[in-house]
Amino acid sequence: MHARQFYIDGAWVEPAGSATLDVIDPSTEEAFETIALGTRADVDRAAAAARAAFDGFAVVPLEERLAMLRRLVEAYEARYEEMAQTISREMGAPITFAREQQAAAGLGHLKQMVKSLETFSFEESRGTTRIVKEPVGVVGMITPWNWPMNQIVCKVAPAIAAGCTMILKPSEIAPLNAVLFAEMIDGIGLPKGVFNMVHGTGPEVGQAIAEHPEVDMVSFTGSTRAGTAVAIAGAPTVKRIHQELGGKSPNIILPDADFESAVSQGASGMMDNTGQSCDAPSRMFVPRERMAEAADIAKAVAEAVKVGDPRSEETEMGPLVSQMQYDKVQGLIDAGIAEGAKLVAGGPGRPESLNRGYYPRPTIFADVEPGMRIEREEIFGPVLSIIGYADEEQAIRMANDTPYGLAAYVQSTDIEHARRVARRIRAGLVHINYPSFDLAAPFGGFKQSGNGREFADWGLEEFLETKGMVGYGVA
C-alpha cells in the first residue's frame, strides 16, 4: 500500500515535507505502519488538481458517472476482506464487527448511491423557469476514525454522483483504510484530479483545506469543537460548510415498552463499536420506579460482553482507538463515580484479563442525574447512563435538554404512542423500536450536532447548487 504517499492528480506522489506519523495498533499499543504527514504545500497541489479537473468533470454525462460508481462497487467487493482486516487492525474493531458493520457500511453506501443516482432528477421546469442542479465545485472532505469507510464513502460517492472534484483528508489515527480506498479509485478510471487524498493533522492539513480559496465546500465529520474551527476557517471565503458533529443521544423507554428487551437492546447498542459512535444511545431514560430493574438488566448485558483481541472471531468488543481516547473515557468514568452516580457494572481500568491495549470495561451507571458530566458530555466509549423520569413529559424534556441533536431512540409496544413521542424529540434521526438501519434515511443533526444531511439522495443534494434560468421555457 502507498502509506507514505499521497494521491494527487491521478497518481501516487511523494509528499512535500518529511514528517511522518506511526499508526498504532490499539490492541497492542505498538506501531505497525507509518504514514507521511502533509503540509499546506501538499494541499495547494491537490487543490490545483481538483480545480483544473472540475470544469470537465462537471459536465460528464450521468451515465458515465453511474458507470464509475458501479466500477467502484466492484473494486470494493474485490478487496472487501482486506478492507475489514485493515479497519480492524488500525482502529481495534473486532474482525466480525469490521466485516459485518464497518466494511459493510462503505459498500452499502456505494450501492445506495448508485440506486439514488439512477432516479435522481437534476432538472425540472416551473412555469417558464428551468431549475437546474449543478455540482458545487471543489469539495474538501475531513473524515474521522470511528466509522472510517462509512464517512469517507458518504462524502466521496455523492461528490462523484454530483460531478464535484475533491480533496480527502482522512483521520491520521486510522488512515490505512483510506489508502486502500484510494487504490480502488485509482483503478476505476476517474479523470485525473477528480479525487485527491492528502494525509495530515487537523491543525495543518485540515486547516489548510478549510481556508483554501480554491475549495468551494468543506464536508466535515468529527467533534463539535473541531467543527467550529472548520467553520471559522472557512468563513472568510464564504464556502459552504457541511458538518456532522457530536451527539448525546437519548433513548426513551416508555412505560408500555417491552421493558427487558428495550433495556437490554439499548445497553447492547451502547457497547457496539466500543461506544465510539456519534449516534450511540448513551442516555437511557426509564420510569423512576423501575430504575433498579433497568440497572439489573443492563448490568447483565455489560458483564456478558466478550472483550478481547480484535483478531478473534469471538470478540464482541475491542479496544478504544488511542491512548488519548482511553484517557478521556477513564476520566469521565471517574467523574461519574465522583458525582454520585451508581456504578452498576464496569468502572475504571482495563478488564482483569487484559494487561495491555486501550481496553475499557463495559460500564453502566444508574441513578444518573441531569447535569452530571456523564449525562452532559459525549464520552465516546462504552459507558451507559440510566436516568429516571417521573412522567412522559419529563422524559421528553430531559431528552431534549442537550446541546446536541443527532439521533434519538424511542421504545414502546404502542407504535402510535412511539410516533407521537418521536415527533417531539429535537434530533435529526429518531429510531423507533430498534429498527434495521436504513441507508436511504437522512443522517445529520439539529443544534450543535451539525447541519446538512448525508446518505442517499439527501447526501447528493448537499453537493449541488441550484440555478434558476428564468424565461427558459419561453418560445
From TrEMBL:
<dbReference type="InterPro" id="IPR016162">
    <property type="entry name" value="Ald_DH_N"/>
</dbReference>
<dbReference type="Pfam" id="PF00171">
    <property type="entry name" value="Aldedh"/>
</dbReference>
<dbReference type="InterPro" id="IPR016163">
    <property type="entry name" value="Ald_DH_C"/>
</dbReference>
<comment type="similarity">
    <text>Belongs to the aldehyde dehydrogenase family.</text>
</comment>
<dbReference type="GO" id="GO:0004029">
    <property type="term" value="F:aldehyde dehydrogenase (NAD+) activity"/>
</dbReference>
<dbReference type="InterPro" id="IPR015590">
    <property type="entry name" value="Aldehyde_DH_dom"/>
</dbReference>
<keyword id="KW-0560">Oxidoreductase</keyword>
<feature type="domain" description="Aldehyde dehydrogenase">
    <location>
        <begin position="12"/>
        <end position="467"/>
    </location>
</feature>
<keyword id="KW-0558">Oxidation</keyword>
<dbReference type="InterPro" id="IPR016161">
    <property type="entry name" value="Ald_DH/histidinol_DH"/>
</dbReference>
<protein>
    <submittedName>
        <fullName>Aldehyde dehydrogenase</fullName>
        <ecNumber>1.2.1.3</ecNumber>
    </submittedName>
</protein>
